[in-house]
Fold these 3 entries.
Entry 1:
Amino acid sequence: MVSPVGAFAAPVITDAAGLGVLVAALGVDGRRVIGPVCRDGAVVYEPVTKLSDLPLGVIDEQDAGVYRLKKTGDSRYFAHAVGPQSWKRYLFPPRQSLWSARRRGKGFEIVKDTPAPAPEYVFLGVRACELAAINIHDRVFDNGDFADPGYLARRGRALIVAVNCTRAGGSCFCASMNCGPRAEQGYDLALTEIVGDGGLRILIETGSERGAAIMAGFEAPLADKSDLAAARDAVRIAEEGMGRKMSQGARKALGKSLDDPRWDEIAMRCLSCANCTLVCPTCFCTSTKDLTSLDGKTAERQRVWDSCFTLDFSYIHGGSIRRGTAARYRQWITHKLVHWHEQFGMSGCTGCGRCITWCPVGIDITQEARVITESFVKGG
Amino acid sequence: MAAGKKPRLAVWKFSSCDGCQLSLLDCEDELLAVAEAVEIGFFLEATRAQVAGPYDISLVEGSISTPRDIKRIQKVRRQSRVLITIGACATSGGIQALRNLSDVDAFVNMVYAHPEFISTLATSTPISDHVKVDFELRGCPIDKYQLLEVLNAALNGRKPDIPAHSQCIECKLSGTVCVMVAQGIPCLGPVTQAGCGNICPGCERGCYGCFGPKEAPNPAALSGRLLELGMDLRQTRHFYRSFNTNAGAFRDESARLESIDG
Ligand code: SF4
Ligand code: SF4
């Protein structure tokens, strides 16, 4: 039985069977557990009800424009890195109805319906870079000037079970963004998988009262010093195996390189397809659509994910202001790495590497930032 | 739309397979509402009854491929307040525009016992090459929800919600995993306009480009990737030459690839 230390519980150690018990315990009381599952050649975030839903022994080989799942004999359930989706799909869904209206005489009236209560999600397998991304969205969607009630309701109810990465993906560079691979805060529970002679062991750390409440009914021995050291070592392997890194000084260099010839060179390769922005866990741009019923009696306003890579997105009176792809790519990367700091007091990039892997032509944010930073340093 | 008289709708066919018109009849659940909202003036696939023009909305299916088509489309335009073209044939010339790359007389002589009875043009071209078009609805065939949206917008005097962005955006919105990145399957999605509802990527196949080029596409960059994925120059060129072979960006890219191939 766990003895509480301070406000929360002390770390415990369990095995695969214990993880199964935990997965079942997470899904009670009307909570909906969303976690990693294999579908269509990728690890995606979908409902999970039992241990066997998780991708046991599955790793993802990732590089610019390439993602391949491989089944291995690995005993870990979380040996994969991040996939094409992020938790933004649940906290900030692709399509949201904002309000609807009914025609009344020559005008209209807003339909006041009570919104359904936000689902109580449990996010299982949230990586350090994803905690950082959620933290960024917390800022974006509640920043003093503007608060998004839908986001805040879903976020407030969500329970976060983090996983410390013990294997880095080929596109990961969270270490150089100070966003991982270890989850430091912002979780209710955090798991670390340790592979040893005796098979898989899992360290469970508790980071909140809600996490402690879940652990209250969970039978497991306390972790000892050697368990904690083994967990640290396992995460260090991920840190050392990270294939990419962001150039130091990129923020300053990019902000001062708006005329760099590299932008035009990127535009030759870039498809302006918008994949990079849609897979990014922090990109939050949307467009607003007004729809009507055929008879014109009712109307609805929707908010739908959009991207700075479309022509329509920057359409204002007279036309689009970012017609060329060079201007659109530059807008995206400088917003992420430069202007986000001014706007929200933090970087817009966590180093998750999704935009690198899921770009169909493999355009790599770390490489583009490096090339421009180097030419800036050289006096460009 | 002002209360009182219902807007009069006409549906016209040029060189085409009829599939796009069928999409209108395929709107089973919404068909009654459409019939409530408009007066069907001319729609031979649905009814023999004909009401003379002018028409408030004309839907035009098919490409211009005969001398007779050229005359007839002028007449349709004159009778139509709003003219909306529907489908790959009407918006780009259709798959029959493959003839634009070949010798039509040679085909005619080869295929028909009496070629002298065949009256055809050397090219198949979109309606917009011949008359002013108010809105183009893409697809082979068109998507019924997009068709309803265009009709709905026209009836309610608002802008239709028909994005010109990439198919990739549709895939990402619906959670479809990218077949090119995750499986190395060649896909035209990054240069193709969204709208079909993810039919092919949703079944783990690459996009065939039925909805034609997206806004400001970069097919040369995509071709480079298709070649890396193992397509040869000929296959890559043919990838662009299907339902929208004559759509500007696809036509130019296939011609470029042909010139490299020699
Ligand atoms: S950088 Fe890659 S993913 Fe992003 S718009 Fe360009 S081609 Fe698409
Ligand atoms: S910019 Fe790229 S690496 Fe950074 S958070 Fe977004 S998807 Fe991840």
Entry 2:
Amino acid sequence: MKTLLSLAFHSAWNRKGTLMLMVVSIALSVMLLLGVEQLRAGVRNGFSQSVSGTDLVIGARTSPIQLMLYAVFRLGDATHNMHWSSFEKLAGRPAVAFAIPISLGDSHQGFPVIGTQLSYFEHFRYGDKRVLEFMQGAPFADIFDTVIGAEVAEQLNYSLNTEIILSHGQGVHRLAEHEDKPFRVVGILKRTGTPVDRSIHVSLAAIEAIHLDWQAGAPMPGVSIPAQYVKKFNLQPKEITAVLIGLKSRSGVFQMQRYVNNFQDEPLLAVLPGVALGELWSIVSVVEKTLLAVSALVVTVGLSGLVAVVLAGLGERRRELAVLRSVGAGPLLVFMLLAIEGLLVVLLGALLGTLAVVAASSLAAPFLQAKFGLTVVFSGLTTQTQLLLAAVILAGALVSLIPGYRAYRMSLTDGLMPRL
Amino acid sequence: MPHAMTIEIDNLHYAWKRRSDFQLNIAELKIAHGEKVFLYGPSGSGKSTLLSLLGGVLLPQQGRIRILGKELTSLSSVARDRFRADHVGFLFQQFNLLPYLSVIDNILLPCRFSKLRCQRALQTETSLEKSAIRLLSQLQLDTGLIHQKVTELSVGQQQRVAAARAMIGQPELIIADEPTSALDSDRQVAFLDLLLAQCAASNASLLMVSHDRRLATRFSQTLAMHDLCAGVNPTMPFSS
Ligand SMILES: Nc1ncnc2c1ncn2[C@@H]1O[C@H](COP(=O)(O)OP(=O)(O)OP(=O)(O)O)[C@@H](O)[C@H]1O
Ligand SMILES: [Mg+2]
């Protein structure tokens, strides 16, 4: 056994150039396969961590998935708003334990601005029913106070008392700025690994205030209301984007949902976050499966390449195998020698590919969050990933038997002077 | 030696699979212990095939082969490989060595497959390496080369390393298939002298195949392929 391994290793090392190329190609294909799977699991993980303890998400009538995407994940824009009076009616229902209003539409340097109430800091839950905690400062108290998420603070290098200017609309391309009404950072939240990290929280009154001199999404020409006078106006919001509702008892959730979906004053939609996510996954899973199938194909190509290379090398190694036979090696050793070589390459490739995926995961999460606002939570190799890895190695071991068998046949029929 | 005969062949018949144009038939061959046998015959007459049969790498379709009194044809495949490792040293025309092992590792290769040869190599020397070095110096090769890559050696040096490998651990039978034909004529004679001297020193039998009949004078016995086969197969196309 020692002889076998040492021979296999030395022989492979002697041809390391070609074999290293094979290792790299297998590593890349494994990286792709595991990467797709890790990303899939990471995105799901990230989404399902984003909200917990909220029984219903309510907004103007649209598709459930879209409502979830903008109300919870802060991806995309809301098409319609709902009236403040509707919010008050919903929040006043006896079954409701808490109601968090959410008003979207503004942004700062690409980060979404959330108009909400203090109930947000009290009742919002994420991950495993965890509450929002402050790294520094406290919830907003005055009208132009803001509380920022950890990612915002880190990326823009903001600290308490930094003054910031909000922009109208989403995205980095500034449509128009609310430069006459700067905000002051009064609180920075601890990192949560959810879209909260990317959010800038202000009061609903503040949202109202910065739009006092605006109409239909643009500043009213000739009208400008200085910041110090805004408190003289009625800052009661007229519209909000969505409501997150927690019920006193989960058993009332369907009754409440029915109540909202048949709401008298305006068309509203209530979704259960878990159900909407399930719907989202069933749509996305087609794409996921296609991606997985393509990467599985790439792995197959990689393994076929390996077999081709080892088989091609076999021709040149006939003399070597005959020499081994002459000093007493059996056909079985010849078989193992070739099989081990293939397996060695697959193992090395799989190892490198896995390391690359693990390394890439830690780099990918911040990149995806910064670039696409997508919160991806990687938590080691998932069971599914481990299964895929095992499958690749098993497949590698199986295909390595092919050159092994060829060499075995050859060593039985060649004699000691193989004709080259 | 418990058995006086090194090689005994009875009514051997061998044909390659899917090759109807060639067959090897040998009614009888006996080579006594300690003989130095020269075997010649034209190309394609089956010399190399015969050597593979003697090594137990190929099995005859009919007949019996006995080496050192052991009936190869009745041994299992594993036992035949083991027997070859223990008792037979092989030497080929060219590309005898594994390019990825050093000189010393190539020489000691048989010891990895045979405990017996390992033990014998250690009987006269305190370490395997010393045993290899002694063989190399007897074959007049610079012993400083032992850790060199074999691909950096000349063809003549490579042949002497291969000879050392065939002889390490003193196998009773050395089988050489045209070991000199890759060398120029001066070197051929020198190499042959070393080989014969070594076989004599370790008391091994030698069976050497060559086209070059001028070399035959140094051997104790000369055999022609067509004589071996004549009795059974008078219509062999290559009889000269
Ligand atoms: N591995 C093999 N498979 C099939 N046929 C073979 C094989 N090796 C040799 N032969 C055939 O067996 C016959 C004898 O070949 P062999 O190599 O034994 O001759 P040889 O006497 O050693 O010739 P040379 O002097 O050229 O080495 C030839 O016809 C050859 O084509
Ligand atoms: Mg030959």
Entry 3:
Amino acid sequence: MLDVKGLHTYYGRAHILADVALSVAKGEVVVLLGRNGAGKSTTMKSIMGLVPARAGVIRFLDQDITGRESHAIARMGLGYVPEDRRIFAELTVMENLEVGRQKPREGAPTWTAERLFAIFPNLAEMRDRPGGRMSGGEQQMLTIARTLMGNPRAILLDEPSEGLAPVIVEQMANTIKALKSEGLTVVLSEQNLHFAHLVADRAYIIEKGRIRYTGTMGELAANDSVRAQYLSV
Amino acid sequence: MDFLLVQFLNGLASASSLFLVASGLSIIFGVSRIVNFAHGSFYMLGAYVAWTLTRGLDWVAFGHLGFWGGILIAAVVVGLLGVIVEILLLRRIYQAPELFQLLATFGVVLIVQDATLWIWGAQDLLGPRAPGMRGAIDIMGQRFPQYEMLLIVIGPAVLGLLWLLFHRTRWGTLVRAATLDREMVAALGVDQKLLFTSIFFLGSFLAALGGGLQLPREPVQLNMDLAIIADAFVVVVVGGMGSVGGAYLAALLIAELQAFMLFVPDFALFGVTVSISKMTLIPSFLVMAVVLVVRPYGLLGRPPSHARIAGAVEPVVRATPAELKWLGYAALALLVVLPFFVGDYGLIVATEILIMVLVAASLHFMMGPGGMASFGHAAYFGLGAYGAALMTKHLMAPMAVGLAAGPLLAGLFGILFGWFCVRLSGVYLAMLTLAFAQIVWSIAFQWVAMTGGDNGLLGIWPDSWATGKDVYYYLTLALCVAGVLVLRRMIYAPFGYALRAGRDSPLRAEAIGIDVVRVQWAAFTVAAVFAGLAGALFVYFKGSVFPTYASIPKSVDALMMVLMGGVQTITGPLIGAVVYMGLHEQLVRLTELWRLVLGASIIALVLAFPQGIAGFVVRLWLKGKAEDL
Ligand SMILES: Nc1ncnc2c1ncn2[C@@H]1O[C@H](COP(=O)(O)OP(=O)(O)OP(=O)(O)O)[C@@H](O)[C@H]1O
Ligand SMILES: [Mg+2]
């Protein structure tokens, strides 16, 4: 469904991503693991066309999307949930959802505000509250709900567990599993290995902008040396 | 009492027209972050097109419908023109530095000015009165025109409609979201091109509607564009950029103050009559001053959320290479012997260019190392000119006194205006400098008793010892070279380092004990002083002074000189001044339509080098270096 090959990305003259390759099949939940500054967010932004890829090919649904504009990529059914949430602070919950709304898409789950409120009950109670006056956890729910309003086939979730209390993290994991069971393809980035184990099928480990390891979650769990080398703090 | 009420209503009516224009500007800025200089041109075109249409349609005997329909159709036509400008020009420069965007839209202003002159001619056009609204109504014994009553209603009505549009439609929700975070909106699948284009239509439509509705109130003239844009800038800054409600509030405040200011009696200051009631820009200034002190981002505005992403990294100022130094000495030597080789005409051109070099160097000082882009540098040039001229004219002071008084006056205003300006940054600062410059211009224009108004002050010649063209040339050469060298010296002095530290990283500079605001304030004042010196030199050179010395086009000239040469280098602006003045001189001589050609050249330059010419050269240079490795 999503295929990245030989991706190189620069910020100005700083070479951030070098030869990144990933491949995600339909219905899979894949996690991109790495420490702070490893290049997880940059990978997602490059896929989304938010930062230009200097070299490499990004394919989504068997189409080359390298260099396309973000809105065109989103329109193909690739959703993006940024790490810093980026809620429209002055818009209400309902208005935030409205911005994300797109037409129903064949072969992807169809969402309405009401269906999303069933998954995120907290949001249902604050429909008219401005996004700026919500807690971090509530905002995190809202960004995910907002992206789902676009009825995506696949979503890129950048560190969904970041800054959330343990209870909420569990809840988030359940949500992602629920999305998977709807048939959604999910790529998430994480530093939290525990959380990754709860939801993911496969993992890529990225360090200093290069992919260092790839395997199933089971294989990763068995490989102490890789974990020690790339993930322990 | 009744009279006060009528005055209050007058204020409300003026507020409505001001609001229509300012809200359009504010909406466009909110989404596109472009300060659209051409907005005033759309206002003017709205009036001109409506003038043509209302007469045409009336003639076809649509009657009442002809008038109202004409104004509406004119607004739609101009709205579509806004769309064309957006698609052809602005779409290509959304990523360019703010200053270049401002310049490009100023290019549009120049082109529209010549086009309007060409189509409608230079004379003022009197519009028709509004059919069915020619009478007046009786308000507590005072007669009040019906049409003004209509305007009073239109302002809040448009405000309400805009509110509905922004809060009750999907389009409005998307626009508000884009105002907050454009990139996120795109990542959610919204095509911003359509959003931007439609917002330009709405903004230009509102400006043109404002212009068209002025038809029954005042004649249509060629200077409507720059007159309204300064007012609109003030309203937008006071109301908060991007806030429609703020724009209405600000328009109301300013228009009411203007209405009531008519009652301030004239008084005498040092024996000169001051008639506040004629200086209509003063209340704008007062409101702006108070608001910016209390709320730097306007009444209902908020601090800019996303500062420019990945702004260009300013290169370090390097020590002057030896070759350049020798080139400088050579140029100086050439200038010293110049009078032996060229005649009076050559000396006149050379003197003017020297003065402009000083202007460019002073503007560069605040823009380059100071990081403060000024769109109103002509204010200090003009103040310097008037400072000198007033000394000689009213006090019969010798030239030396005038040459000192000019920079002094400019410096004093630099201190006053700078105090406000350094509290803002980027495009907010640029708009504020422009508004201040407009105030200086309006004082020069409106305080007839002191400045002679539009007729200026004439017969201000140098003392007898300096009347020779060559003597005055040497005097100019000495003062300008000294000025440029002093500015240069300051850039390399600790003061210059502190200034650059404040520009590159205000927080870190504060942390190491630099009072950034103070340093910038000082730099602002220094720039004003040297621009003032240039202005004073210019007065004795020309023998006269006019309000145009402080006008917007003069400010743009200064800006063009610096940008052509490049903000990043110290020598660039000097070369820029020489090249630009030469070009300007030739253009004015060669063609009647010099504004059109100049505007088109500005646009072409911005489109060709959206990162600035110097940025372009620096990149070429870096590329060359990289290939060397
Ligand atoms: N806008 C930017 N300009 C320059 N460098 C950047 C920018 N954004 C990120 N970087 C650099 O790129 C590298 C990768 O950053 P990225 O945000 O992709 O890391 P990450 O893996 O998402 O880290 P985190 O877990 O902290 O979110 C880092 O070294 C970072 O400093
Ligand atoms: Mg990240």
